[in-house]
Structure formats: C-alpha cells, structure tokens
Amino acid sequence: MFCRVILTVTAVLLSAAAAQAAPVFGNGDLSNTDDDPGVQYGNHTDYAVPFQTGTSSPALTLTGAYVLIGGQTAQSVDTVFELWTDSGSGPGSQVGQSSAVVSIASGSPTGWTLLTFASPVTLTASTNYYAVFGTTTNLFETLRWYPPATNQSYTDFSSGSGYSTDTNKVLYGSIDGQSTWASAGSTLNSTPVGIQLVPEPSSTMLLTTFSGIVACVGLARRRRVRA
C-alpha cells in the first residue's frame, strides 16, 4: 500500500512538471482583454522591449512568451518572437527565436498568443536583453501589439525570478528585416505592451519524484529479503 501511494503521488507530480510553467515576468493577466493603442505594425516590422534578468546564476531557462496581439482585418500573419542581447544602444544579436502563423479574426483582437522557441534559451544572470515581436508578412491591414486592459505595470509575478525592466527605457523598432534598429519614440511608461515570459517547468518536482521511486523500490526489496 505504501509503495502504491508513493507511485501515485509520483505520477501526479510528473504530470504537473510536464504542464506549461506559469509566466515569470511581464504584465497583465492571461484573462485580460486588450487596451488601445499599443504599437502598430506595417510590413516586416519588429518592436523590441528591454528587460533584465535576475541575480541567480544561471538565470531561468525560457521556452517562449505570451504576447497580446490583434488586428481589424481577417488574415494569417507570419510572426516571430525572439530574444536579443543588448548592444548598449538597442538590440545586439539574437539568442532565441520562435515562429508561428497567427490567425487574426476580422474586427476583434486575437488575444494572448503563446509563441514557443525552437529550443529553450538559458540567459545570463543580471544581464540586459530585449524581447522582440515582429512579422514577416506583407500585411493587408495593420497588426497591433496591445497593452493589457489592467495591470500594465511590469513585474516578476512574485515568481522570485528577479526579472525587471526600466520603464523609462525606449522601445526599439525595425522596418528593414532587423538590419537596423532605431528608437520607436516612446518608452514603456507611455506605451506598454502585453508580454509574459514563460520558463521551463521546474526540475525540482522531477527530482522529488525520482527520490520517491527509489524509496519505493528499496522498501519492496527489503520486504522480499525479510520474507
């Protein structure tokens, strides 16, 4: 009976660890609706949001992000979400990328959309980065990256990640396929956008369940020896 209980708990914990981890940094809530105006996209447009990782070393490994996007005309949009280093004067070099085709419903926002990296990205602690969302589509009408209707302030969601941002920093933009970057003319204070960074599920649960399995097997062996 004791062995079966441990194995049952193990199965539950393994399922929990395999589930999507909760976002560790960003703003809003995944139940939030959007709020105007956000930033507007034309053809081949990218915007970059600055943030800094926490002091733990290494920093958390990220698997992707939720972005709050939408538009006014029904269309399929080829999107990219990326992480870039900070050159000191804007985005420097790419360290992680996802790509996805997002369907925009006519006259209504798409809402929070999860974009996942091809492989997880581990960032350096206490380091500045940029989160970049863009499109490679020739848009029929504009796409927007919206702020959430509530909780627009950026936070680490009490996750202990230590991730933060300086909302006085400017957004950067590119309209030439990321060949050059320039100030978009607004700060995160004046133009927040909806983003939530998603980490890998914690390995702590997996270590706990492995210990449970070993304890169970060891107990079963001792019982067979005594018998």
What attributes characterize this protein structure?
227 residues; alpha+beta; 6-stranded antiparallel sheet; 2 helices; 40% strand; disordered N terminus; disordered C terminus
Written account of the structure:
The protein has helices spanning 2-18, 204-226, and strands spanning 25-26, 39-41, 46-52, 61-71, 75-86, 91-104, 109-122, 128-135, 143-145, 170-174, 182-187, 195-199. It has 227 residues and is α+β, with helices and mostly antiparallel strands. The strands form 2 sheets. Strands 1, 2, 4, 7, 9 and 12 form a 6-stranded antiparallel sheet that branches. The longest helix has 23 residues, at 204-226. The protein is globular, with a radius of gyration of 21 Å. It starts with a helix and ends with a helix. The model is unreliable at 1-18 and 203-226 (pLDDT under 50).
